[in-house]
Write a structure and sequence with these properties.
By secondary structure, this protein is of the alpha+beta class. The chain has one domain. Helix content is 31%, strand content 16%. It has two helices and three strands. Strands 1-2-3 form a three-stranded antiparallel beta sheet, with helices on one face. The longest helix has 13 residues. It is globular and about 60 Å long. It starts with a helix and ends in a 21-residue tail after the last helix. The mean pLDDT is 87.
Length: 80
């Protein structure tokens, strides 16, 4: 398993998501209520694939520990 994937799964479980491993070594992520969120592949596909998975997770309440500061988009700048 990829190191990044192991960290993501640990973070998901700590936040109350359920992660099940399938027979093909993929992972199914569900909310605490049992609602399907996404599937995780054991190997990387491309950069966008990983970002799309994180976007789906955030839509269901996942808070990425690496992004605690939030998005930099739309922040006001000091004029001067």
């Amino acid at each position: 398993m990829r190191k990044e994937l192991a960290g993501l799964i640990a973070s998901l479980v700590a936040q109350g998501f359920t992660v099940e491993e399938t027979r093909t070594n993929h992972f199914i992520v569900r909310t605490s209520a049992g609602v399907y969120v996404t599937g995780l592949a054991p190997t990387p596909s491309d950069r966008r694939g990983d970002l799309n998975v994180l976007a789906r997770l955030r839509r269901h309440g996942y808070r990425d520990p690496k992004r605690q500061g939030g998005s930099k988009k739309g922040k006001a700048r000091k004029k001067g």
